[in-house]
Amino acid sequence: MATQMSSARRGVPTDQMRQVAQDEDVELPWLVRAVASGSVIIPSNTARPQQIHNVGIGKGMKTKVNVNIGTSTLNVDINAEIEKAHTAIKYHADTIMDLSDGGNVGEIRRSLLAEAPITFGTVPIYEAYNSAIEKHKNPVK
Predict the structure, then answer these.
(1) Is the dihedral of CA 31, 35, 39, 42 positive or negative?
(2) Residue 127: which pLDDT band, with cuts at 50, 70 and 90?
(3) What is the pLDDT of residue 50?
(4) What pLDDT, in 10s, does the model give residues 6-63?
């Protein structure tokens, strides 16, 4: 499976690069070079079942709006997080970052991914923290 960067380093523009070049009003060859050098990234998870609108992030790109959402060990309300995701999409956020560290983090992330067809990031160490709390009642064990 090729990544955006590996394709760019071979000089092969991807559909995502074409879409980002059009959205950003930049020349495709310039964007391919920028992705190849790492000064621009195009987060694109090919395992996601829904079609998402990819964005370019980095030098020479337009500013993006990121929305941070997530549960905590003190407040686990998946419906509230889904509502936040819907609100982010309604108001045209470019990306969502799930910072959940409370509750069943895997289930929460799967639910949010299903509800949010935009670029979506997570913090894997938060899931590890949550697992340590559940197993050992102590995040450092």
Answers:
(1) positive
(2) confident
(3) 86
(4) 999 999 999 999 999 999 999 999 999 999 999 999 998 888 888 888 999 999 999 9
Question: Cα dist. 25→39, 53, 77 in Å?
Answer: 17, 16, 40
In sequence order, the β-bridge partners of residue 68 are 97
Q: Which two tokens stand for residue 24?
A: 């950003």
Residue type, 64: K
Please give the pLDDT value at position 101.
Answer: 87
Structure token pair of residue 80: 């509230």
CB-based contact 82:112 (threshold 8 Å): yes
CA distance 84 to 98: 11
Dihedrals phi, psi of 16, to nearest 5 degrees = -65, -40
User: CA separation (Å) from 64 to 22, 33, 34, 37, 59?
Assistant: 16, 21, 17, 20, 12
